[in-house]
Amino acid sequence: MDFPNNDLVEREYASYLLSKQSGLNLVPATVIREISDFGEGMVQNG
Known about the structure:
- Helix content is 33%, strand content 30%.
- By secondary structure, the chain is an alpha+beta fold.
């Protein structure tokens, strides 16, 4: 597994926030969602 700490969601969201705050806007809008039995997930618009 590439992300043994199950932190891919947090990494993707952090990338979005960094892109947004820096003004680069390279990462589409990203929202973290709770996905019933599967735990946290993320949704990107773009």
